[in-house]
Amino acid sequence: MEQLPWLPAHADLGAALSAARRLEPAARFAEAVRLAGYRRDFTLTGRIDRLATDGLADPALREGVRPALTPLRLAILSSHTVDHLVPAIRVSGLDRRVALSVHVAPYGMYRQALLGEDPELAAFAPQLILLALDARDAPIDLPLDSDEATVEAAVQARIDELRTLWRRARARYGAQVVQQTLVPADPLLFGSFEALVPAAPHSVIERLNTAIRAAARQEGVLLLDLAWQAARLGHASGLADPVRWHQAKQLVSPALAPLYGDLVARIAGAVAGTSRKCLVLDLDNTLWGGVIGDDGLDGIRLGQGNATGEAFLAFQRYAAALGRRGIILAVCSKNNPEVAEEVFAKHPEMALRRGDIACFVANWNDKAGNLRHIAKTLNIGLDSLVFVDDNPAEREIIRRELPEVAVPEVTEDVSDYPAIVGAAGYFEAAGFTADDAARARSYALNAERQAALEQATDITGYLRSLAMKMTARRVGPAELPRVTQLINKTNQFNLTTRRYTDADTARFAADPETLLLSLRLSDRFGDNGLIAVLMARPDPALPPGELLIDTWLMSCRVLGRQVEEASLGVLLEHASQRGVKALVGEYRPTAKNGMVARHYEKLGFAPVPAPEGAESGATFWRYELRAAEAPAHYIEVEAA
């Protein structure tokens, strides 16, 4: 089976790895990160992992690596052998822009590690815990004639045990838990009749997986849905191979390690906030067959009636579905803009419409420059982009010029495009809310705001014309999932980039001494949704009556609209009501949040020495409430 088909093939990956061994440590690690973006088998994956060893262990060697990597500690607690999978997990992490440190608990000791004492796991302090279980681990073994109620009770008992393990993992380590679903390992007993026998082995496993998914949704646990992957890949995929199982208790064969590693790494990326946000699409021979400038509106192949036209329509429908999920859609095409936009407006078979596209760039400039323009216009990083283009030369140019941009290696047949983009997992999610679904529309509205700004004669008049309204509230149960999601994925406008689990956020929201606020913004163009999260809390290093601003994050799409000033005003009002004397802001620099380095200075905070025990490089800023004046802005603020 072809491993990682969305990645490009290297002309001679083995030779490139050999040459990289002679480089200096920093350059060697940077080359390992680059080579992790190519198609590879088990052996080559292991060689890339060895090349990256020093860099993964030494943060100094990771400085300057492009794209920047987010460090994350992953612990794997399993009932099957996973040691042979660890290199693939780390290497795929590099491709997903995550520097993964991996700890593997002793084989089969997952219960003891969570319910008892595990000094090594405690010292490792995992941020992510993968509970990788197999169907043979303590199977539910009931008489085949057991009735539905008996099977259901047995399944519920197993789910209750898993809930206990999940909760213990969160309580003890504050980690995000990922549960692996169960892959059937034994042959069917009844053939197609198996699903109609409640106690048949495959029937029980299917019930367990359904119950695991439901419980995970309730408990805020993420899934590594290996059962769905097994169904997609088929029996010969390398999952639950009886030979590998009996020889080494390997549920996942070495041949499948690169894919398994990527499945784990993309979840780690979603937790770390490195999942992609924007799908950028070429037009000619990507969204329709033919060249619109040559073939005309009636000559392009699109829609019902022939196989090629239906394939292009299917890809458009998949892109539109991603847009409804909240993925931003953009266009980057070498074309005359009027001709290109006419297809969206007039072709009856288009599944995508112009209003679905947040940024439409059609010109004769180089596509690397246009992608930079798209990222700047949308106010997102280049590392948020996925660029789909049928032209292999254009794909190679973008990979060379903009290594931050993900460029799937699509085939010559557009019928494969949805499967390739979907299988690549660029848009892996760690949550989904109504605000997520509205995100793409909000970026499209931002383009309208930008147009209004360009037409305005002065910034004051523009800000007044927006008629902005901010709603501020204490975070309640309904907002917790979205707030946690923002805390864990916001990188650029994030003063401290602290990451918290669902349990942490719920605890802060319930703490009467902690201010955890959510801010929403609307204007005459529409609703921006939840755009900022602020958290201020007492800290042992501060005197009584002062609060540390533990978290201040904001969506970049509302920059330049005085939201920072309005947010500070909200925080000052809530703090004053509690008799707080001063607020202390902390800025912890990262590879991505340089844009907010002077945030507190601009808002009138005074620099103060870092308290004892503060993170190296962090700066601190103090704001006296007794001398504070409400910051000036043109936003109407109301409490909810």
Automatic annotation (TrEMBL):
<dbReference type="InterPro" id="IPR036412">
    <property type="entry name" value="HAD-like_sf"/>
</dbReference>
<dbReference type="InterPro" id="IPR023214">
    <property type="entry name" value="HAD_sf"/>
</dbReference>
<dbReference type="InterPro" id="IPR010037">
    <property type="entry name" value="FkbH_domain"/>
</dbReference>
<dbReference type="InterPro" id="IPR010033">
    <property type="entry name" value="HAD_SF_ppase_IIIC"/>
</dbReference>
<dbReference type="InterPro" id="IPR036514">
    <property type="entry name" value="SGNH_hydro_sf"/>
</dbReference>
<dbReference type="GO" id="GO:0016788">
    <property type="term" value="F:hydrolase activity, acting on ester bonds"/>
</dbReference>
<protein>
    <submittedName>
        <fullName>Methoxymalonyl-ACP biosynthesis protein</fullName>
    </submittedName>
</protein>
<dbReference type="InterPro" id="IPR016181">
    <property type="entry name" value="Acyl_CoA_acyltransferase"/>
</dbReference>
